[in-house]
TrEMBL record:
<dbReference type="Pfam" id="PF03101">
    <property type="entry name" value="FAR1"/>
</dbReference>
<protein>
    <recommendedName>
        <fullName>FAR1 domain-containing protein</fullName>
    </recommendedName>
</protein>
<dbReference type="InterPro" id="IPR004330">
    <property type="entry name" value="FAR1_DNA_bnd_dom"/>
</dbReference>
<feature type="domain" description="FAR1">
    <location>
        <begin position="11"/>
        <end position="104"/>
    </location>
</feature>
């Protein structure tokens, strides 16, 4: 199979992994040594996140039936390698036989928490209308065909909305400063000042 971009190939494997029931980890990225191509990526190796073996020190951290940041490795050999050839990305190596149980369409694999640009745009628009986060999630879930098909949680929506608010606030502040600078060039008697808080954010503006 061939893809127009590496992102398209990665999304394809990630979508397959969601349907099959495993999570993906990008384990290796190769770059060209050609100066003309400016260190471009030429090959990407993706594997099942249960690849390799669990270290002895990590075994003590695995807690059954509870949240754990440590993944129980099974030395799974599932992998997909994509390489750039003539401007296209091609699958050059593939192994799809797992050595562990699969959980198809699970919402809790890290690599499946994918938020598209369209989703992000809709979140920004709905947030701008002061719609509550739980209602924004309900709209997104409806468009995806139900809560079970939403590839992220309410927390991810909240976090993204907060990031959007910070970006808007920073953008507004930059526009204000640019306007003041322009005002100063037009009127030398004009002056302004702003005060920052402990987190380097604008607290007050004079």
């Amino acid at each position: 199979m061939q893809f127009k971009t590496k992102e398209e190939a990665q999304e394809y494997f990630n979508f397959y992994s969601k349907v099959a029931g495993f999570s993906v980890a990008t384990v290796a990225i190769s770059r060209t040594t050609s100066k003309k191509r400016n260190n471009e990526v030429t090959r990407i190796t993706m594997k099942c996140n249960k690849w390799g073996k669990t270290k002895e020190i990590e075994k003590d951290c695995i807690v059954p039936m509870r949240k754990s940041t440590v993944i129980a490795k099974t030395d799974c050999k599932v992998m997909m390698v994509i390489s750039e050839k003539g401007g296209l990305w091609e699958i050059t190596r593939q192994q799809l036989e797992h050595n562990h149980e699969l959980t198809p369409n699970s919402r809790f694999f890290r690599s499946h928490k994918y938020m598209s640009d369209e989703d992000k745009c809709l979140i920004r628009v709905l947030k701008h209308t002061n719609l509550e986060t739980r209602r924004i999630v309900a709209v997104l879930a409806y468009l995806q065909g139900g809560m079970a098909h939403l590839p992220y949680t309410k927390k991810h929506v909240t976090n993204y909305a907060a990031t959007g608010n910070r970006d808007i606030a920073n953008s507004d502040m930059m526009e204000a400063v640019q306007m003041f600078n322009k005002k100063q060039t037009e009127n030398p008697g004009f002056c302004y000042s702003f005060e920052l808080d402990g987190e380097n954010k604008v607290r007050s503006l004079f």
